[in-house]
Design goal:
Elements: E1 6-9, H1 16-19, E2 22-25, H2 31-42, H3 58-68, H4 75-82, H5 84-93, E3 101-104, H6 107-116, E4 121-125, E5 135-136, H7 143-152, E6 159-163, E7 168-177, E8 180-190, H8 193-197, E9 205-208, H9 214-230, E10 236-245, E11 248-255, H10 263-272, H11 276-284, E12 301-307, E13 312-318, H12 320-324, E14 329-334, E15 341-342, E16 353-359, H13 362-375, E17 377-381
Parallel strand pairs: 1-2
Antiparallel strand pairs: 3-6, 4-5, 4-6, 7-8, 7-10, 8-9, 9-12, 10-11, 12-16, 13-15, 13-17, 14-16
Length: about 400
């Protein structure tokens, strides 16, 4: 695209610095420091756009774009995107279908809510994404303990509880141009590992295209558009997490930046030929992506699966070469080596690797991804109590 890349990170040894043209030594979690560093750089060399990928820092992005006079979301939208509780309150007030939810100020408040609950509940940090600190209040789970787990993962010590709605989980990726939304992909989330890691909510992968009926997918894209408007997103990208349950589609979360997790960088391009990262860059520069660039060039099956070895010390990793050369395997990464520790702290579970496979159909892609996972063996040796789950 003929662009120079300037990255910002608070760690001087961050890997992005080696790949970029220039860098700012400022944490993306610190809006003031990032603005100061960006202003100093822009005084010497013009900056034309700001983009966050796989970093939930909308307030920092908004601060920098406003400081430099660049396109971006408003401070109000950034606040709503960063605070899940404020977001859910706004959406509910405007009639957007979201789960019942409430702020939780203390252990005792959660214990009282749990005793009175007439529905399944899940406890979350109100200001953190991914599944860290997310605990379902299933039988045998102490609400006070669940509160402490969520509280520990919240940057501001903010905890919320919401209804856990059983159903089919769907993730959307949407481009917003002048307030108009175009949903580029809908993927089904693979949450089967939840049974293994209960009471924690752990995603094991995803699959494209969605298996849900077209009428349901239309309702989902309409709901995402309504939510984006309600949050004030005029340009950029949004990702929606939804569950299709007994009441139809319900929005569980929305972020106002490109996510991590391979969906935008690998799965959507492999499934549709759409380069959503390029579209997001154009929007950050104040440009409009060409309409043709947002239309699928093909529709293929894509499946992602994660590796979850048993807790302990890794003593051997086998089968990587065989799995990586399997039919349809587009990506295989294993992030552990002998001597690495696999934590049993399930509220912070991180996969030890990932495989992405393609196929003519969704089902073929799933079969190929799961075959690749089966070929890789990560052998661990259990140590002491530190490796044991703590629930």
């Amino acid at each position: 695209m003929g662009l120079r890349v300037l990255v910002s990170d608070g760690a001087p040894d961050a890997p992005g610095f080696r790949l970029a043209d220039a860098g700012l030594l400022a944490s993306t979690g610190d809006p003031e420091a990032t603005v100061e560093a960006a202003r100093a750089y822009a005084a010497r060399t013009p900056v034309h756009g700001v983009l966050a990928v796989a970093a939930d820092v909308p307030q920092t992005v908004a601060a920098v774009t406003h400081a430099l006079g660049l396109p971006g979301i408003s401070f109000q939208t950034a606040h709503l995107a960063a605070d899940r509780l404020a977001m859910m309150d706004r959406l509910a007030a405007r009639g957007v279908p979201v789960p019942w939810h409430a702020a939780v100020a203390s252990r005792s408040v959660l214990e009282t809510l749990a005793r009175r609950a007439d529905r399944p509940l899940v406890v979350k940090p109100a200001d953190a994404r991914c599944a860290r600190g997310v605990v379902r209040l299933v039988r045998g789970v102490d609400p006070g303990w669940a509160y402490e787990v969520a509280f520990a993962e919240s940057p501001r010590g903010s905890v919320m509880v919401e209804e856990f709605i059983p159903g089919s989980w769907v993730r959307t990726e949407t481009v917003v141009v002048h307030g108009r939304t175009t949903t580029l992909a809908l993927s089904d989330c693979h949450y089967e590992p939840c049974d293994r890691f209960a009471p924690f909510v752990v995603e094991g992968g995803s699959e494209l295209p969605s298996r849900l009926p077209p009428a349901v997918l239309d309702r989902i894209t309409g709901l995402v558009a309504e939510a984006a408007r309600t949050l004030g997103v005029q340009r950029g990208t949004v990702q929606g997490d939804l569950v299709v349950g007994p009441r139809g589609p319900v929005l569980v979360d929305m972020i106002a930046h490109l996510p991590g997790g391979y969906l935008c960088t690998h799965e959507i391009p492999l499934s549709t030929g759409i380069n959503i990262v390029a579209a997001a860059i154009h929007l950050a520069l104040g440009e409009e992506p060409e309409a043709a660039a947002l239309r699928p060039r093909w529709t293929g099956g894509v499946a992602r699966r994660h590796f979850f070895p048993s807790p302990g010390t890794v003593v051997a990793v086998r089968g990587i070469a065989e799995a990586a050369t399997g039919e349809g395997v587009a990506l295989l990464e294993v992030g552990v080596v002998p001597g690495a520790r696999v934590s049993g702290m399930m509220s912070r579970i991180r996969p030890a690797g990932v495989v992405i496979a393609v196929g003519d159909t969704r089902e073929q892609a799933v079969a190929r991804a799961e075959a690749a996972v089966a070929r890789v063996r990560i052998v661990t040796q259990t140590a002491g109590p530190a490796d044991a789950p703590f629930h």
